[in-house]
Each structure stands twice: as structure tokens, then as C-alpha cells.
Amino acid sequence: PTEEREKQYYEETARDYDAVIEWLFRSFGENEDDVRRRMVDLLELQQHHRVLETGAGTCRDSVAIASRLGDGGEFYVQDLSPSMLSIGRERMREAGFLDGSRSPVRFFVGNAGNLPFDDGFFDAVYHFGGLNLFTDKRRALAEMARVVRLDGKVVVGDEGMAPWQRESEYGQILMTSNKLYAHTPPLDDLPEGARDVCVRWMIGSAFYVIDFRVGEGAPRVDLDLPILGKRGGTHRTRYFGVLEGVSPEAKRMAYEAAEASGLSWHDWVDRAVRAAASADLGDRERRVLSPRSRTARET
Ligand SMILES: C[S@@+](CC[C@H](N)C(=O)[O-])C[C@H]1O[C@@H](n2cnc3c(N)ncnc32)[C@H](O)[C@@H]1O
Fold it and tell me: Measured in angstroms, how far is the CA atom of residue 56 from the centroid of ligand 1?
């Protein structure tokens, strides 16, 4: 439904879009080509790269992206609105990117939340504008990351006042004039595989640009590496091994005893619990302290 509304809105306003964007950059005193070049820089493109731009609209960034590609390069340009894209195609044609002398450019109408490509098909994906109003930003961001190869870049941006300007008169004026400026970068919606995530605020600090590298799943961490210091234990024991609380008196005694024994708090408690449990369980459950759980302090 929101997508339908979005599509209809852009279908109806496509003819006026370019004038609005030119006004926008003028209002902020920014050089649009320069700003867009700096955003496209974040894609870290090489001539042979295969790139996707979603929500390309009238292709105001597409020209900068296409100009980075050369031998072996391929550029896929997508938007929800056929009218926006047909103006975009004309811009690309006028800029000389469609006469067959450059790397191929393919235009297609579609939804950024459902990309018809295999995993890792692209070296980079770019999306600027429109993201704030997506019904499912998380899904769209996941799709963008899914179609990018490992270590490839995703760059997305839209309106969003920088945190340090939200309470200022400057920020308040803009957010009152246009509610889109009240949006915040959708960092909570980034996929788990996002790495080296960077947010910057550009164009009068009123637009966020997020760029990240695509990794696989959650970041790597050794949950069983003994933690240095007197608490001891590991990330795993601290998360999965939490037990019932004890009386304040027992707690004080445990810390004192750990100190006296030279063990970390973790190792002392682990040993005490195992000893008490073994005594009650008999031989059934006798287990010794595993060497992995001993801290460096003890050895
Ligand atoms: C603000 S314009 C940005 C156009 C262009 N990227 C630019 O920077 O000038 C937003 C564009 O996103 C497109 N759009 C909106 N929802 C979309 C979706 N779910 N998938 C793909 N494009 C979408 C709209 O049709 C519109 O062309």
C-alpha cells in the first residue's frame, strides 16, 4: 500500500522532480555534482564492477556511477516508478552512456525490497532518497546486502537531521518545514552482516549517508577465550552460566576466598559449585574444572 502510494506520487510528480532537487541543493548552497560524487566515492568502484542502483529516479547519481565503470563493468538501474526511470534513461542517453560505447546499463522497474538477483551478484549497491518511506526498510537493506558479494559496499542515504542539530533553531526550522528531516538513519535495521559501518551527515547536515561492507552473519568472536583480570570466566560463561543470587554475606565470603586462593572470581565460583554439586550427586556427575575456563591469572 505505501509502495503503491509512493509509486503513484512519483508517477504524478516525475516531471517536476528535477526542478525540486535543483532547488534543494541551491537552498543548502551545495554543489550537487560534488556532493553526489562524494557519495558515489563510498562505493569504492572499479571499472570492471557490476553495480546496482535502486530508487535511481531520474538518474542524478547514475551518471556519476556509470562514469566510474569501464571494461567488464555493468550497471543495473532500478526504480519503482516507470515515469521517473524514463526521465532517468533520457538523462543517461544524453550523457552518452547508452550509445553502446560504454559498459552496459540495464534499466528495470521493481521494488527494492524484492531484488531479482542471486546472492552476491553485485560488487556494490547504491540507494539515495525514498528509503525513509519504505514500509519495510529492514527488508530492503537486507536485500541490498544479500545481492552484494562478500566485502562489497552498500551505500544508502535519505533525509535525516544530524543529532547535534535536532534541538537547534536550524534543525527545528527545517524539521517543521519538512517532516522528512525528522527521520533518523535506520541503523537498527542494518543486516547482521554489516561491517565497518559508517554514518555521515551531508547536505546541510540534514541528510544521512550510511555506508557499510558486506560480511557473513554475526561478527566473529571467540566466546571461550579466558578473560583477563580478577573476574575471569569467558563471554560464554558470563552469558550462559548465570546462576541464582546468593546472600550478601556469601558473596563477600566468595570474593575474599577467591582473592586468598589466587583464583579468578569465575574459577573460584565454578570450582565451589562443582565441588558442592559433586558431593550431593555422588560419582554420577563428578567433573573437573575444564582447562579452557581457567584464566591467565591462574596459570
Ligand atoms: C527521492 S527519489 C530519489 C531519486 C534519486 N535516487 C535521487 O537521488 O535523485 C526516491 C525514488 O525512490 C523510488 N522508490 C520509492 N520506493 C521504492 C521502492 N520500494 N523500490 C524502488 N524504488 C523506490 C521512487 O520512485 C523515487 O524515484
Answer: 6
